[in-house]
Amino acid sequence: PLVMVVDWQTFVKGPPSYDMAILFYTSLEKEERTKEKIMKYLKFYHSILLKNGMKNYSFEELVHEFHISLM
Q1: Distance CA 45, CA 43 (A)
Q2: pLDDT 10s digit of each residue in the chain, 71 long?
Q3: Contact assessment for residue 49 and residue 57, using Cβ atoms and an 8 Å cutoff
Q4: What letter would DSSP give residue 53?
Q5: DSSP, res 33
Q6: Of the residues 9, 45, 56, 66, which has the maximum number of CB atoms within 10 A of its CB?
């Protein structure tokens, strides 16, 4: 089934990683937030961004911005 997430609570211009940081740390149980699982989710998210036309956005950049978004 197709799953979509629409969050109207915050409307800000920022890196795509911001949404993932909020989603992971407000929706996932602590056991699901292991480094390995988060990296797996981020890789999947990055592949979707690229498939949908995002250009010049490396996986390393996504991870870096993800860590900044957690602060």
Answers
A1: 5
A2: 677 777 666 667 778 788 888 888 888 888 888 899 999 999 999 999 999 999 999 999 999 999 998 88
A3: yes
A4: T
A5: -
A6: 66
